[in-house]
Design a protein that fits this description.
Elements (H helix, E strand, L loop, with lengths): L1 H18 L5 E6 L2 E2 L3 E3 L5 E2 L1 H13 L2 E6 L5 H6 L5 E7 L9 E2 L8 E6 L16 E5 L3 H9 L4 E5 L2 H9 L5 E5 H8 L7 E8 L7 E5 L4 H16 L2 H9 L11 H5 L2
Parallel strand pairs: 1-5, 1-6, 9-10, 9-11
Antiparallel strand pairs: 2-3, 3-4, 6-13, 7-13, 8-11, 8-12
């Protein structure tokens, strides 16, 4: 009987460490160009809200995090090519992405908002206000998809990195930029963001069901363990401590859908 119990225990440990946590390590994939969620410090180390959450989850799972950075455009193919075990990079949970990866439960809700130069004299950020204007955003994001659907009268300029779009906003090559309100809020507080301000309301794409951690379809045990760990860091107060380090307001409330503001 004892031998049978021990065998089951060893099998469980093998499933945990063998399928996705060899040597007690979970490889966490992220981007590094999306502050304050994921960014590089002056020493080249990746930091941010996503990283703090990932490290807290690894602690609850009793494994070590090994952080791997890659470009956003190729981040899902990199996951499915086994370059890392998760994507924790502020990725929105959508039905289309859910066809090729599985998502954890949401660990926050990220609303989008427009930012523009203070001297742009934009009266609003509805489709009628931005007709004929040039809007910058990061390629491969929910914001890029949302703009294509609801802002057909504007010129949409897509960038590999959000920093490039913001640089063009500073120099007047685009009229406005759409991105996460959290990321843009942090940028507005910096010296190079002093040129600009928010305009319009916050919203999310209709398909956005929150921000989750992506795993390969085959890693069902990892998904179960991540969801359990998310519940645990919320319950023990770790999540709130991390959130308060970056934001003075709650980020677990779902924002308005784009169709509610702009129609279909």
């Amino acid at each position: 009987m004892i031998k049978g119990i021990l065998g089951a225990f060893v099998l469980t440990i093998f499933m945990f460490t063998g399928s996705y946590a060899k040597d007690g390590v979970v490889r966490m994939g992220t981007e590094g160009y999306y502050p304050p969620f994921n960014f590089f410090d002056s020493a080249g180390t990746v930091k941010g809200f996503d990283i703090d959450i990932g490290n807290a989850l690894c602690e609850r799972m009793k494994v070590n995090c090994d952080w791997v950075t890659t470009d956003w455009d190729g981040i899902i193919p990199a996951l499915n090519s086994n370059k890392f075990d998760t994507i924790i990079a502020s990725m929105a949970i959508t039905e289309k992405r859910g066809e090729i990866v599985n998502f954890s439960k949401p660990y926050y809700f990220n609303a989008a908002r427009f930012v523009t130069r203070k001297d742009a004299n934009l009266k609003g950020a509805m489709p009628v206000d931005l007709k004929g204007k040039t809007i910058g955003t990061q390629s491969g994001t929910g914001e890029a998809k949302l703009l294509a659907r609801h802002f057909k009268g504007a010129k949409i300029k897509r960038y590999p990195k959000l920093d490039d779009a913001l640089l063009d906003l500073e120099t007047g090559r685009v009229d406005t930029v759409l991105a996460s309100q959290f990321v843009l809020g942090a940028w507005l507080k910096k010296e190079n963001g002093s040129c600009c301000e928010f305009v319009g309301d916050t919203f999310v794409e209709d398909e956005n069901d929150g921000t989750g951690i992506a795993v390969r379809k085959s890693d069902t045990e990892l998904l179960r363990t991540l969801n359990k760990a998310i519940d645990e860091i919320v319950a023990n107060g770790t999540y709130t401590k991390i959130r308060e380090k970056y934001f003075s307001f709650g980020i677990m409330t779902p924002p308005a859908k784009a169709s509610e503001l702009f129609g279909n």
